[in-house]
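Moderator note: this is an archived Q&A kept for reference. The question asked for a predicted structure of one protein chain; the sequence and the answer are reproduced below.
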Amino acid sequence: MTRTTPPRPVDVEALFPEVVPYRHEAIRLHPRAGSPGVRDSSVGGPLLWPAAEPWPYCAAEHLPVAFDVPADGPAPLVPVLQLYAADIPGVPDLPFPAGSDMVHVLWCPFEHEPHRAPEPRLYWRASSYDGPVLGDPPRPAGAPDDHVPDPCVLHPERVVEYPSWDLPQQLCEALRERFDELERQTGLEYHSHLAVADGIKAGGYPNWTQGPDWPDCAECGRRMDHLLTVGSVEFDGAGWRTWLPEEDRPASGTVLDLPYEERMSLQCAPGLMLGDMGGIYIFVCPHCPGTPSAYRFDCS
């Protein structure tokens, strides 16, 4: 089943032509509960991981989550995302290194300094691998359930984004009165309803909850590119008006009127909750050998 983000209810580029130079394309991945295989792009699903390759562990210090104290010793990472380039065509901002056409995102599900969040790692691969695949990877004991995604199939969809927190401050100030007027007339708030897509996605802008915190590459000093956002929710209490796919809209009422479990199957299908509805943002440098990566985390 496809997922289709509805067109913006107003013509953003006609109302605010100043934002056009900053538009980017992203791929919303729209995870929904399912049974993906190793040859599928997925969240929390099985990976095309060579059986002969050791499973990665995290040996860093793990911080307590709420009242749970992590067990001592290295913790195995957990699968978060498997993404085949063939499933996200036409997004120029996604730099697959030479010889690779898929990426694995794993993370340690315990909290780490400096962000008090799971710590992700990237593994680039070639989908042409046809050897033995690892069966069930080890699972860390005592990991927070909401840091370990449930298996989900993906429904990739290409969308256009405009910057929210990343809008240059001077331009944001210049547009503020027009943003406010649009909200008075339509109830649409530029930053929540028109700018950056919610959810788990590739490319586009990070869906910052706080102010932007773009990392610079430790090797060349250039600002890194946003590769992926792993967000807690597909939409929030305000953003559902524009970010809830057409196929998921109830026949009557709104998504907020659905029974809790049914709404959560749309809003939080992987079962992730990172802080207070936060997100982990993964960045890469396409200019340096090895495609260095970094990450950031923020929440409400």
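Archived answer notes: The helical segments are 12-15, 169-186, 190-195, 240-243, 260-267.
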